[in-house]
Specification:
Layout lengths: L6 E6 L3 H12 L1 H8 L3 E7 L16 E2 L2 H7 L2 E4 L7 H10 L3 E4 L2 H18 L3 E2 L11 H7 L5 E7 L2 H13 L3 H10 L8 H4 L2 H15 L9 E2 L7 H9 L2 E12 L8 E12 L11 E8 L3 E8 L3 H21 L13 E2 L6 E11 L4 H11 L4 E8 L9 E8 L2 E2 H13 L3 E10 L3
Parallel strand pairs: 1-2, 1-4, 2-3, 4-5, 5-6, 8-10, 10-13, 10-18
Antiparallel strand pairs: 7-9, 7-11, 9-10, 11-12, 14-16, 14-17, 14-18, 15-16
Helix pairs in contact: 1-12, 4-5, 5-10, 7-8, 13-14
The structure holds NADPH dihydro-nicotinamide-adenine-dinucleotide phosphate and L-homoserine.
Length: 439
């Protein structure tokens, strides 16, 4: 029954996501009203340029360049403009006037989340952000609500679609990084500034948001370790394939007791890693996303779907809108996200990982022993060694290629091993260093 006054919705932004939010909101008005118990009245859509071409028809009388007037008049504000400013100022204005806010802006949340959540809490407003991580995939609500009574220990995900597309094309079609990036650009997958994707910044923002929710701890963006995919070579992709692995850009958040003292800390990190081909994340192809969550009671859970796209992201925004509108109708306090656990965010050096290191070594007596010694000196245990002799070149010392897989060790020890190998006379060159996950 619709017996509540119409709720006034302000939409900030009508680009890929915003135009689809507006379309769905207008097309599904009656159904949404029935679900909420109040009409959702789109009172206006703020844009930079009213004349810009849009992916959906929006009645011209709704378009405005005056975002502030819309915010003042709204019950609920949807921010899909992107960027840090003026999005931050607009969201603060909306929250301070008591409006609930929905945002898809991962960059803003990862940078100014604490300030925004505090502002919301102070006035009893709610900030919703399901679309900010992995777009259409429900992952925020499961962490915030469904798993709220459980203890999440680890999250490992592919949360950037464009880099997954690039790595997948390198793997499945044998493309170079440059050729795969050109394809991704052509398909419109990359951000306007592609370094946000390929250098891992976008994935770092997303894992900072997930880690904070999962571990009830503030995770500043500058404490997230980050490596992108720009150094991944075609040779690494081929070697991975031959050895039963695939390379994925992983975003990992983990609760760990790094020094065995019983004191827990949090690690949040992004890097390309070898994943066994039989691992569920290896099957995530193209621009899709997936997030693998391990919780104490629930066990392993996998969330999979479209991690980008205007209409797909609009689905998550509208889900948040229905929740916000229902709260308006039913009343009740906002859900505050707690950072009570306040765990230490650990640097990468203290994290336990495995490396696979490919070395071109002199093919001479004693070389293998020298190399094995370097691992032992740094307390790193070798798990596998595969050797192949390289074709000989006239006048050159014969060389062999050694692929060494390690057991888990601290990242600090593993990188010391790599430095010592590079300085060793037995080693001609190190041709690949990559972490291994999912074993
Ligand atoms: P677009 O660049 O396509 O659209 C941005 C919109 O905001 C445009 O309509 C633009 O106006 C408007 N805008 C920008 N600055 C201002 C301003 N100062 N005042 C008023 N309007 C402004 O972005 P997307 O739709 O792709 O992304 C929106 C948000 O959603 C971002 O935070 C993004 O990270 C997030 N997101 C996007 C996904 C995607 O697949 N696209 C997936 C998940 C999250 P005009 O049209 O006039 O230029
Ligand atoms: N650039 C992002 C990606 C868009 O490739 O996943 C969705 O956040």
């Amino acid at each position: 029954m619709i017996d509540y006054r119409p709720l006034r919705i302000a939409l900030l932004g009508a680009g890929s996501v915003g135009a689809q939010v507006a379309r769905l909101l207008l097309e599904n008005k009656a159904e949404l009203a029935a679900r909420v118990g109040a009409e959702l009245e789109l009172i206006g859509v703020a844009v930079r340029d009213i004349k810009s071409k849009r992916s959906a028809d929006i009645p011209v009388e709704l378009l405005t360049t005056d975002a502030e007037s819309l915010i003042v008049a709204a019950d609920i504000v949807i921010e899909v403009m992107g960027g840090l400013e003026p999005a931050r100022t607009y969201i603060l204005q909306a929250l301070n006037s008591g409006s609930d806010v929905i945002t898809a802006n991962k960059a803003l949340l990862a940078t100014h989340g604490t300030e925004l959540f505090e502002a919301a809490e102070q006035v009893g407003a709610q900030l919703y952000f399901e679309a900010a991580v992995a777009a259409a995939i429900p992952i925020i609500r499961p962490l915030r609500e469904s798993l709220a009574g459980d203890k999440v220990n680890r999250i490992m995900g592919i949360v950037n679609g464009s880099t997954n597309y690039i790595l997948d094309r390198m793997d499945s079609a044998g493309l170079t990084l440059e050729a795969a990036m050109a394809e991704a650009t052509e398909l419109g997958y990359l951000e306007a500034d592609p370094s946000l994707d390929v250098e891992g910044y976008d994935a770092a923002q997303k894992i900072a948001i997930l880690a904070a929710l999962a571990f009830h701890t503030e995770v500043p963006l500058d404490r997230v370790y980050r490596e992108g995919i720009t150094k991944v070579t075609k040779a690494q992709i081929t070697a991975a394939r031959e050895n039963g692995y695939v390379i994925k850009l992983l975003a990992i958040a983990e609760r760990i007791d790094a020094d065995g003292s019983g004191e827990q800390g949090v690690s949040a990190r992004v890097y390309p890693a070898l994943v066994p081909r039989e691992h569920p994340l290896a099957a995530v192809r193209g621009a899709f996303n997936a997030v693998f969550v391990e919780a104490e009671a629930a066990g392993s859970l996998m969330f999979y779907g479209a991690g980008a796209g205007g209409v797909q992201t609009a689905s998550a925004v509208l889900g948040d809108l229905v929740s916000a509108a229902k709260r308006h109708v039913a009343g009740g306090p906002g859900l505050a996200d707690s950072v009570h656990a306040n765990l230490e965010v650990l640097p990468i050096e203290r994290i336990y990982t495995r490396y696979q290191i490919t070395i071109q070594a002199k093919d001479q007596p004693g070389v293998l022993a020298q190399i094995a010694n370097i691992f032992a000196e740094h307390g790193v245990s070798v798990e596998t060694v595969e050797q192949s002799v390289n074709p000989s070149e006239p006048g050159k010392t014969p060389t062999a290629s050694l692929m060494v897989g390690t057991h888990e060790a601290t990242d600090a020890s593993l990188s010391s091993v790599v430095n010592s190998l590079a300085a060793s006379e037995a080693v001609e060159s190190i041709t690949s260093v990559i972490r291994v996950e999912g074993l």
